[in-house]
């Protein structure tokens, strides 16, 4: 069989097509491989990796990544090549550029320079990828330049996301600090009001009740209507004394300071018992914790009991306080009507606002809080926080 005649033109076309395919594949690998790497790298390593890959892609031996802030201050965030030669690249950056720019600089230490802008989400440049070579080169074609612009855009997106995340974390820390200060100020104010009530109004009410009792004991026999009125006044005075003590206990229970978290929560559970709800402790830990931990967990238990009394329609409540591997664990479970935890929380709903407050209190103690509930299957609350806050035991 006779071979077909050799066509030099066809061979040249095939070779040209092959080289173009190789070039396209290289551009694709540049973008895909770098994109995959950037998701796993810290911001500084991102900058270094993109700069190194860009230099290798165009076979240029120097590179500089410049970024500037809102005030126009420019800084080099990554370098590749000789530092002395790189210093000459600072002056070639135009902060208003929008597209890649090639520059020939005959006689300079770095005669060939390519500038590629890093643009943010608003379209404005906040940096530039500057590539240079110590020997004059031919300007890259449009496809290579577009590939580098895509690479710069990819880096810019990651850097901007990182900046936004850093800003969000900073705002979150600031908000948590403000909430923490608010809770502490609230506790201080409650403590002050509790002491003022104890030393003022509560003492006055107790004295009034005692004086009325003394008066009733010395009073001669009264007609039945007057005696009934006197007994009603005595009962009312006694009720006021009891309510005053209960109010003081709710503001700042002295049993929490004197006897610890377990006794304070158990005394708070008396409100459930008085409402005819059975209370059963499944685990009891009498250890003392740091003041912040005891106050935080007590307020969580107090809010949980409030929700049970107001909403749950429960007949049984199980309480547990444990110390597990250096963490204080509080559980409050009821057999009430429950609710759908998957539904959207209404900020006007007192129960959901209480749950958010419990979540925030646990979070401020570097702990966790969970709520599990279902219609007609009760509600289970779990708070888990470090028992030795800041490493300082009570």
From TrEMBL:
A Pfam family of this chain: HisKA_3
GO molecular function annotation: kinase activity
Keyword Kinase: yes
UniProt key word Transferase: yes
Domain Histidine kinase/HSP90-like ATPase: 292-389
GAF domain mapped to chain residues: 42-169
InterPro entries: GAF, GAF-like_dom_sf, HATPase_C_sf, HATPase_dom, Sensor_HK_TwoCompSys, Sig_transdc_His_kin_sub3_dim/P
Keywords of this entry: Kinase, Transferase, Two-component regulatory system
Alphabetical list of PANTHER family matching this protein: NITRATE/NITRITE SENSOR PROTEIN NARX-RELATED
Name this protein carries in UniProt: Sensor histidine kinase
Organism: Pseudomonas nunensis
